[in-house]
User: Which sequence fits this backbone?
């Protein structure tokens, strides 16, 4: 079970972010998306002093505002239930329901087209506005669609391996911000990963939101990688008016090993089965007592990455003490010199720094060497951090 740590780190980080690709030197036009629909303008929007200005007729119409124009005073008006807006060409003072509001940029006429500040109009129409400077996109929608768009951007840039784009979706104040950038700048040049994500908003407050995601990550190209599906809760926060990812807490990780959950023939005696179960129990005791010399004797010489496993176990024991609970042992297949066993382990910290207790299901292959059953290989099936619930455990184990 301790061998899961490196795999877990890779699975968690690989489910999220990517590395930067080159972006064309040419300046892209500004696109404006309102409630998922891209607006078409007769004259392209532009940025002035940090504010995006757009032709007023298209945005007023999309936001449900009636259109008014007073040629004598050069005043634009827009009305709908509960809202009245007046903007005058060249003036940084606007009227919203009769009250004066200051603008950062005044409306203007360019090539006979009247332009108005996009953010001001949209926010007063009770819409949120976000800006993606990488693709020069303004996204206008309510909070729920903005949060959905945040995750679409997050995983979209991940698929494109665009580190700049991915980092733009994160809250810079997140404790994991710098570490995330460092880890993925190393991982994504090596792997080409494919993502499937579903998003459910659990709660929205004025400055924070709680979102559950189910993310399936599969390797397209690259070295050995554990495909996975992660159920997680995500804390989202407002940063300068835009939603950003602040923290992700995994609840359940499915390592997508259903092809291994196949029952075969078990032809060994009960005594031999008991001998294998005794090896599992001895490993549990070794873990709790941190007896790594005894633990090493339970593995075949060609066990994958055995040296790394032992070094990792010793390193963990320097900082933590754990208890291990074993349950659910089941023989999937067993012959004279080979056995495949599934079992579950609950790991709980008894001392050490902050640590999240979890359970895991593992498929272990045993080999009989010189009359002794030894660990020959292992494949984790799931990791469950929600120990108060066992429904996800049961869902993960579907034996064929």
Assistant:
């Amino acid at each position: 079970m301790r061998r899961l740590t490196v795999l877990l780190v890779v699975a968690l980080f690989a489910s999220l972010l990517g590395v930067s690709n080159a972006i064309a030197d040419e300046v892209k036009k500004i696109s404006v998306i309102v409630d998922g629909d891209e607006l078409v303008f007769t004259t392209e929007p532009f940025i002035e002093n940090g504010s995006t200005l757009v032709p007023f007729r298209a945005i007023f119409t999309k936001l449900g505002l009636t259109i008014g124009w007073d040629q004598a005073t050069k005043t634009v008006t827009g009305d709908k239930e509960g809202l009245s807006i007046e903007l005058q060409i060249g003036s940084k003072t606007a009227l919203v329901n009769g009250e004066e509001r200051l603008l950062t940029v005044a409306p203007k006429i360019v090539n006979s087209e009247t332009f108005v500040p996009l953010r001001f109009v949209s926010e007063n129409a009770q819409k949120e506005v976000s800006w993606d400077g990488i693709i020069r996109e303004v996204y206008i929608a309510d909070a729920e669609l903005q949060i959905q768009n945040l995750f679409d951007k997050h995983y979209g840039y991940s698929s494109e391996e665009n580190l700049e784009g991915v980092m733009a979706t994160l809250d810079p104040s997140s404790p994991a911000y710098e570490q995330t950038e460092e880890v993925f700048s190393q991982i994504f040049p090596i792997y080409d990963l494919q993502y499937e994500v579903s998003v459910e908003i659990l709660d929205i407050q004025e400055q924070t939101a709680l979102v559950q995601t189910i993310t399936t990550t599969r390797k397209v190209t690259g070295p050995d990688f554990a495909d996975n599906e992660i159920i997680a809760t995500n804390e989202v926060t407002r940063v300068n008016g835009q939603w950003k990812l602040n923290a992700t807490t995994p609840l359940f990780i499915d390592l997508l090993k259903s092809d291994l959950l196949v029952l075969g023939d078990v032809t060994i005696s009960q005594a031999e089965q008991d001998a294998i179960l005794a090896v599992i129990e001895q490993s549990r005791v070794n873990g709790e007592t941190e007896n790594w010399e005894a633990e090493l004797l339970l593995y075949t010489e060609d066990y994958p990455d055995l040296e790394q496993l032992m070094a990792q176990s010793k390193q963990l024991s320097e900082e933590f003490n754990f208890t291990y609970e074993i349950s659910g042992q089941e023989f999937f297949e067993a012959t004279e010199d080979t056995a495949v066993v599934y079992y579950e382990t609950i790991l709980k910290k008894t001392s050490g720094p902050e640590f999240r207790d979890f359970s895991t299901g593992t498929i272990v292959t045993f080999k009989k060497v010189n009359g002794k059953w030894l660990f020959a290989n292992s494949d984790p099936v799931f990791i469950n951090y929600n120990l108060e619930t066992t429904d996800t455990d049961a869902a993960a184990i579907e034996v064929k």
About this structure: The first helix runs from residue 4 to 14. The two ends are 23 Å apart (CA to CA).
